[in-house]
Amino acid sequence: MATFDALTYTQRLQAGGISQSDATAHAEALRDALREQESNLATKSDLAELRADLAELRADFAELRAEVKTEIAELRTEVKTEIAELRTEVKTEIAELRTEMQTGFAEVRAEIAEVRTEIAEVRTEIAGVRADLQGQVSEIKGEVRTIRRLFWALVVGILLRMVLSSPELTKLLGF
After folding, report:
1. Which of 12, 47, 65, 115 has the highest count of CB atoms within 10 angstroms of its CB?
2. What burial class does residue 4 get, using C-beta atoms within 10 Å of its C-beta: 0-12 exposed, 13-18 middle, 19+ buried?
3. Which residues, by range, are in coiled-coil regions (predicted)?
């Protein structure tokens, strides 16, 4: 470190017109400030120590980086394994669901076929009942016609009897 020559500094200040007491006070203040500043400056040994600490930190950081890389690789492997297991489970569950759905669809189709068969049977029964009813309706219509004929025959017979039993009507009609 450079040394401070207080005497030369004081002489220069005096040559510049500053009193000896002021020049001396300035020189002492400057010398104290430089000493204080020197105590805050790093020495070569301080720098060497700092470099050693930095090298140690770099080594620690490199070691930590290697550990983190290893842990990340392990985690990546674990995650891949878990994903593969989950895929297998999901595929198995999907296959089971497909089987269940196919079975369910087959059961529904069988039930639909049964219902269609029952509907066909009911239609056949309805057709039979309709035919029976149509036959009965035809019979009833025939009976109604017969009843009408008998009714009119009876009415005519009653009227004829009335006409024949009444002397006035017989004369009038010319019987």
Report:
1. 12
2. middle
3. 27-132
- Rounded to whole angstroms, the Cα distance separating 24 from 6 reads 8
Measure the CA–CA gap between 16 and 82, rounded to whole angstroms. Answer: 87
- Model confidence at 44, pLDDT cuts 50, 70, 90, reads confident
Asked if 124 and 134 touch (Cβ cutoff 8 Å), the reply is no
Q: Which residues contact 38 (CB under 8 A, 6 or more apart)?
A: 1
List all residues 6 or more positions away from 1 whose beta carbon is below 8 Å from its beta carbon: 38, 41
In angstroms, the CA 73 to CA 77 distance is: 6
Q: Residue 161: which of 152, 150, 149, 170 has the closest Cα?
A: 170
| Domain boundaries, given as residue ranges, for the chain | 1-41, 42-173
Q: Give the percent of the chain with pLDDT over 90.
A: 66
E-strand ranges in the chain read none
Using DSSP, state whether 175 is helix, strand or coil: coil
pTM of the complete model: 0.41
> Quick one: tokens of 158?
């009653």
